[in-house]
Amino acid sequence: MRTSATITRPPTPVAIRMRRLVSLALVHAVLIGGAVFMLLPFVFMLTSAIKPPGEIFEATFRLWPRQFYGWQNFESALSTAPLLRFLLNGLIVCGGILVVQLLVAIPCAYALAKLKFPGRPILFSLVLLGLCIPVQAPSLPLYIAFAELGILNTYLSMMMPFFLSVFAIFLFRQFFKSYPDEIIQAARLDGVGEFEIVWRIVVPSAWPAIAAFSIFSVVAHWNDLYWPLIVVSDTKLATPPLGMMYFADSELGSNYGALAAGATIITAPLVIAFLIARRHFIAGITMTGIK
Amino acid sequence: MAGLTLRGIRKTFGDTAVLNDIDLDIADGEFLTLVGPSGCGKSTLLRIIAGLESQDSGSVSIGGTSVDHLRPHERRIAMVFQNYALYPHMSVFDNIALPLTMTRLNLFERLPLMRHLSLRRRRIMNEIAREVRAVAEQLRIESFFHRRPGQLSGGQRQRVALGRAMVRHPQAFLMDEPLSNLDAKLRVHMRGELTELHARLGATMIYVTHDQIEAMTMSDRLAVMDHGDILQLGTPADVYERPATTAVAQFIGSPAINLFQARVGPGGQVELLGRTLPIEVRNAPTPELTVGVRPEAMRIGGGPCAVTCRFRRRENLGSECILHFDLVASPEVAVLCRVDNGIPIPEGEVPLAFEPRDCHVFDNNGRRIEVESRNAAGRDLRRASEVR
User: Fold this and answer.
1) Of the candidates A42, A74, A106, which is a domain's last residue?
2) Which residue of B has its CA nearest to A193?
3) SS3 sequence, B207-253?
4) A232 in a domain, yes or no?
5) Of A102, A147, B311, B360, which one has the fewest beta carbons inside 10 Å?
6) Between chains, do B77 and A189 touch, taking CB under 8 Å as contact?
């Protein structure tokens, strides 16, 4: 009896606060550990970009170099490799892919979500099936087809395989599914055609989903090395990772400081874009039907 | 404005029949309510009229011409939805203006950037703005023209939805439970506004609701629906005073009508719980009958028409109260009695009396049977319906 009485005695306010503090500290320790683990390579890149060659391979790691060598590294990176050209190529390829992906996937997703037509379940299962196919699987037939068409070594050849994104169709379909039918019906009664319903009525409410997908798409294709490596051999068309690969071999090969500076330049646009769009991105991920 | 005609409308979803052969004529300028429990097919019927759903067979005509082949907006009717269905990303002004911009501007003039190139567009937009203002003034919504629907209260959104419907000058208004998302007080207020709006516009309105009070207070006529059939079509007074079936009698009137099992005695007299009532039926198809008496027609006390009941509880409605009883003869039958609040609460077993002319008699299929009632003195024999 006595022991049970001591167990059920309510904890003091101090004990409650202590317990909360400890659990908070634990959670944050785990999160900080994960963040450090993921950010460390990035920090290593940034510090290497401002270190003179001699300091990069020193046994002791220093966040800030004894001798600031940033200007020289960035200058040699920019002068030996056409980095701005690579950035432009990346912009063209990623922008082109994203625009066509949205133009194709949004009407498809709307049809799958809101229109009734025979064969819709089959089409949707095909979309789901498409999600399971990795890009490497059809790369050989695509390469041969592009070679036959004579469009290897063009922007188009880098973009075309990604124009139809089943992931985008799936994501937007889940999002549109929750869009109220009555608003679409009201629009039909008001004389809005189906295409205009998509672009004027539904899409303006889908910005979070579009932002989330855009980030996924741009990150994936900005960082993609595999496909550009297959279809492009002209350095003038190289996307940032492909360009870096070319120059890591030849001119900049031994200059790790300049290489890190180049890597910093080509990752910067993505990081900045993400920081700007962060709020939309997170809202989009939590709002889409994938829960 | 125009009248509507429905002929032989049928609709099934899979194996379930939603509408069975609906015929309905709606006069020009009439306020007709489709009322019934949820799932009775009233909303489907409304959506078939709007063209949002297609009927399996039958035809819809508006103003004398068939509209079966027309798409929703070509039917020139407006609809107000239960959840208002306003375009969430557009301002109130744009919401109301959209039906007009869609019909009056061409595709080129509606494109986001191109539209600034058109001179015609500016002239038309001015015209549209004038018409939107005129509608907004009637509904007193000009003050929040630039807000979005999300920033408005339920009643304001409802007005905007009405404005979007009115601005097109449609041939008819279809309303799908437009008041059921509002709180009770606002609902009563909007009921009045809608009735006044109907009187002012003289528009044909078809109104769907499951709320019998809305149906009774607002309509010129109401159609009581259940299981895909129109059970009764008539004025509110007609439906209340002469319900065509037990289902109508139970649905219209609050609290619900009291129903008693009865039978036809020799000579056509109605026998209720061993007591012969001074009413007679002719041509009853079966000896079993159902007698219905509305709670407001019952009073405590004896008489030629009375049932003995045991008091259970009292519900206070303020000005009056509802007394709940059990029938002594069969305690599973609840009997309700609506009386003034002043009368003393009965105790134990009491007789509840009603007038013969307040009896509604139905056959065992639930269909109404016309009765002949003798008044208390037994002198006069008149048809119950003519007494009123």
Assistant:
1) A74
2) B102
3) EEECCHHHHHHHCCEEEEEECCEEEEEECHHHHHHCCCEHHHHHHCC
4) yes
5) A147
6) yes
For the segment B211-261, what is each residue's pLDDT rounded down to a tens digit? 989 999 999 999 999 999 999 999 999 999 999 999 999 999 888 999 999
Structure tokens at B154: 């339920």
Residue A190 is given by DSSP the state T
Contact A188/B89, CB-based, under 8 Å?
no
**Domains in chain B, please, with CATH?**
4-241 (3.40.50.300), 256-383 (2.40.50.140)
Is residue A108 domain-shared with residue A189, that is, in the same domain? yes
Whether residues A25 and A99 fall in one domain: no
Distance of alpha carbon B305 from alpha carbon B359, whole angstroms: 9
What digits encode the pLDDT tens for the residues A94-117? 999 999 999 999 999 999 999 999
* Residues in chain B whose Cβ is within 8 Å of chain A: 47, 50, 52, 71-73, 77-79, 81-83, 85-89, 98-99, 102-103, 110, 164, 168
How confident is residue A286, by pLDDT bands cut at 50, 70 and 90? low
Q: Is residue B266 pLDDT above 90, yes or no?
A: no
Of A191, A204, A205, the CB nearest to B102: A191
Q: Is the pLDDT of residue A118 over 90?
A: yes
Residue A229 burial by CB count (10 A; 0-12/13-18/19+): exposed, middle or buried? middle
Q: How far is C-alpha A127 from the geometric centre of its chain's CA atoms?
A: 21
Please identify, among A50, A74, A98, the residue that sits at the C-terminal boundary of a domain.
Answer: A74
Query: Hunting for tokens 């973009």 — which residue is that?
Result: A159
Closest CA to A284 of A216, A226, A220, A222: A216
- Among A147-151, A169-173, B267-271, the range scoring the smallest mean pLDDT is B267-271
Domain CATH for A142? 1.10.3720.10
CB contact A185 to B (< 8 Å): yes
Cα A226 from Cα A138, distance rounded (Å): 13
Distance CA B124, CA B257 (A): 57
Interface predicted TM-score of the whole assembly (ipTM), two decimals: 0.83
Say which DSSP state A236 is in.
G
Q: Considering the domain boundaries, does residue A1 fall inside one?
A: no
Structure tokens, A159: 């973009």
Do A65 and A107 reside in the same domain of the chain? no
CB contact, 8 Å: A150 with chain B?
no
- Asked if B147 and B136 count as a contact pair (C-beta separation under 8 A), the reply is no
pLDDT in tens, B110-153: 887 766 777 788 888 899 999 999 999 888 888 988 999 988 98
Average pLDDT along chain B:
88
Tell me the per-residue pLDDT of A233-265, one tens digit each, with 9 for 90 and over: 888 888 988 888 887 776 666 778 888 888 888
Within this chain, do residues A279 and A196 fall inside the same structural domain, yes or no?
yes
Quick: pLDDT tens for B279-336. Answer: 888 878 888 899 999 999 998 888 888 888 999 998 988 888 999 999 888 888 888 8
The dihedral region occupied by B80, where left means phi > 0, alpha psi between -120 and 50, and beta the remainder, is beta
* Interface subset of A 163-182, CB within 8 angstroms of B: 180, 182
pLDDT of residue B115: 67
The answer on A94 and A217 residing in a single domain is yes
Residue A152 is assigned to a structural domain of this protein: yes
Q: How close is the nearest chain B Cα to the Cα of A115, in Å?
A: 12
Note down the domain range covering A17.
9-74
Q: Are residue A41 and residue A64 in the same domain, yes or no?
A: yes
Please indicate, yes or no, whether residues A156 and A175 belong to a single structural domain of this protein: yes
Residue A3 belongs to some domain of the structure: no
Closest partner CB to B85 (pick from A185, A192, A196): A185
A242 and A141 part of one domain: yes
**B85 and A196 in contact by Cβ < 8 A?**
no
Nearest residue in B to A190, CA atom: B99
Tens digits of residue pLDDT in A34-67:
999 999 988 888 888 888 877 777 777 777 877 8
Chain B hits for A187, CB-CB cut-off 8 Å, are 87, 98
